[in-house]
Amino acid sequence: MAGLAGITEKLVREPMHPRCLTKVSATPQSCAPNFVLQDLKGRSVDLSKYANKVVVLHFWATWCEPCRDEIPTLIELEKQLRGKPIAIISVSLDNDLKQIDRFFQGAKPAFPILLDPKQKLSTLYGTFKVPETFIIDRGGRIRDKIIGSRYWLDGVTVNYLKLLANLNKPDK
Question: Residue 169 above 70 pLDDT?
Answer without folding.
Answer: no
